[in-house]
UniProtKB/TrEMBL annotation:
Signal peptide: 1-20
SUPFAM superfamilies xrefs: TPR-like (SSF48452)
Pfam families registered for this protein in UniProt: TPR_19 (PF14559)
TPR repeat start-end pairs: 95-128, 129-162
Repeat found in the keyword field: yes
Name recorded for this polypeptide: Uncharacterized protein
Keywords for the protein's UniProt record, in alphabetical order: Repeat, Signal, TPR repeat
The keyword Methyltransferase belongs to this UniProt entry's keyword annotation: no
Classification via PANTHER family: TETRATRICOPEPTIDE REPEAT PROTEIN 6, UDP-N-ACETYLGLUCOSAMINE--PEPTIDE N-ACETYLGLUCOSAMINYLTRANSFERASE SPINDLY-RELATED
Length: 181
């Protein structure tokens, strides 16, 4: 029987897209370049994608996001979470607000809250390869190797140049080879 945590992650894997404010036309071109382009430009394209994702189109939300990120980096998780709660209240379609809150919740050992936030990120932006990699790690930590492999594969669909995700997927593929998938 699967653990409830793993069932929540499995629901994320099949979430249908709702692009909300992640429809910046530059993203499609950058993702196409990332998917079919060479590795030399991958880091630059990834940085540009994350930069676009991190722009909420609101000066207030952007300022709160910067402060929440700074607070999290300094270990002030309670302050960061309070700021992030305001962010997702002010900008409910800003996927990076949920992504950062999920990361902070994970650091504060609130896995259920993190998974909830990561679920919202994938609902808003299914191409969010960083969140998919994090979810794959959570699945792996929960002993769900096959599901972790599938999530790493989904991350690699959007960013095939992620060496870490590729190594993890290969390792898991070797481990589960010969077993029913």
């Amino acid at each position: 029987m699967r653990k409830p945590f793993c069932m929540a992650v499995l629901v994320l894997m099949t979430a249908s897209p709702a692009f909300a404010d992640q429809t910046d036309p530059r993203l499609d071109q950058l993702f196409e370049e990332l998917r079919v382009g060479d590795a030399r430009r991958a880091e630059e394209n990834t940085a540009r994608i994350i930069e676009i994702w991190s722009d909420s189109q609101s000066d207030t939300v952007d300022l709160l996001y910067e402060r929440a990120n700074l607070a999290a980096n300094n270990g002030a998780f309670d302050l960061s979470l309070a700021l992030l709660d305001h962010i997702v209240g002010l900008a409910p379609n800003f996927a990076q607000g949920y992504a950062l809150r999920g990361t902070v919740r994970l650091a504060a050992e609130n896995r259920a809250g993190a998974i909830e936030d990561f679920s919202k990120v994938l609902e808003l932006e299914p191409r969010q390869f960083e969140v998919r990699t994090t979810l794959a790690e959570l699945l792996l930590a929960g002993g769900e190797r096959r599901d972790a492999y599938e999530m790493f594969q989904k991350a690699l669909e959007w960013n095939p140049h992620d060496d870490y995700a590729r190594r993890q997927a290969r390792m898991l593929r070797r481990e589960i080879d010969g077993q029913e998938i």
